[in-house]
């Protein structure tokens, strides 16, 4: 099994099922189909589980996660622990693939290049139909402090070997901190410039709901001891 597509889910104020349905549909149209889908669900109802049953042709492993509900990195970590594929592809439930050849392109890139982690091009959408703000990820030395030129974890794929886990004390910087941890271990990411996924912009996304002091997270990552490779 080549890919584990890890998707942390929750009700997302009634939009979770709608968003996840579009994501699962986009996975179902992929030309490369050697994958498992791992859904770690923080929902308190059965709507997402019921949706997964409708996509029985996909290889979905559904797990109800009752621990640390509301903690996005904890829910994502729970899914990562269940991954059996050679390559892990993270997807947030409100994002989706816009290229039916996405998994094939990612697989070939790993196969043809020496890299442990890869980020791909993306765009953004407000309605799930029209796309804007196309971007190709790039590295910058201030990424640890929130200058995110890579985008959301939905652009990320990495080799399933001695997995790093997301810091469950972070929210806004969970992705930047993770990218920096990968950089510390493996060096700069491989960049696949094709636009493969879209990030959905809406009022119920994590960044829109954040109401804490970002400086607290910045101070936390400043004090972390990142172990750089020799």
Could you please describe the fold and organization of this structure?
The chain has about 230 residues and is an alpha/beta fold. It has a single domain (about 5-220), classed as Spore Coat Polysaccharide Biosynthesis Protein SpsA, Chain A (Alpha-Beta Complex). It is about 30% helix and about 25% strand. The chain has 7 helices and 9 strands, in the order βαβαβαββαβββαβαα. Strands 1, 2, 3, 4, 5, 6, 7, 8 and 9 form a 9-stranded mixed beta sheet that branches. Helix 1 (about 15-30) links the parallel strand 1 and strand 2. The protein is globular, with a radius of gyration of 17 Å. The relative contact order is 0.17. The mean pLDDT is about 95.
Compose a concise summary of this entry:
The protein has 230 residues and is an alpha/beta fold.
Features:
23% strand, nine-stranded mixed beta sheet, 7 helices, 29% helix, 230 residues, single chain, alpha/beta
Annotate the secondary structure layout:
Elements: E1 3-9, H1 16-28, E2 35-41, H2 47-54, E3 60-64, H3 72-80, E4 87-90, E5 96-97, H4 102-112, E6 117-125, E7 131-135, E8 156-159, H5 174-186, E9 190-200, H6 206-209, H7 214-222
């Amino acid at each position: 099994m080549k890919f584990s597509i890890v998707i942390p889910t929750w009700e997302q104020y009634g939009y979770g099922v709608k968003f996840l349905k579009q994501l699962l549909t986009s996975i179902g149209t992929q030309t490369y189909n050697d994958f498992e889908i791992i859904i770690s669900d923080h929902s308190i109802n059965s709507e997402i589980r019921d949706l997964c049953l409708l996509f029985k042709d996909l290889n979905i492993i559904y797990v109800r996660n009752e621990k640390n509900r509301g903690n996005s990195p904890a829910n994502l970590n729970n899914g990562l622990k269940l991954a059996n594929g050679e390559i892990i592809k993270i997807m947030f439930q409100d994002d989706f693939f816009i290229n039916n050849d996405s998994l094939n392109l990612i697989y070939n890139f790993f196969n043809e290049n020496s890299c442990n982690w890869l980020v791909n091009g993306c765009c953004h959408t407000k309605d799930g139909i029209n796309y804007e703000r196309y971007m190709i990820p790039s590295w910058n030395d201030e990424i640890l402090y929130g200058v995110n030129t890579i985008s959301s974890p939905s652009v990320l794929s990495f080799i399933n070997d001695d997995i790093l886990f997301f810091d469950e004390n972070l929210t806004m910087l969970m992705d930047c901190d993770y990218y920096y941890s990968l950089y510390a271990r493996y060096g700069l990411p491989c960049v696949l410039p094709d636009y493969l996924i879209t990030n959905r912009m809406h009022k119920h996304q994590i960044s829109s709901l954040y109401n804490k002091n970002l400086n607290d997270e910045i101070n936390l990552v400043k004090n972390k001891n990142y172990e750089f490779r020799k």
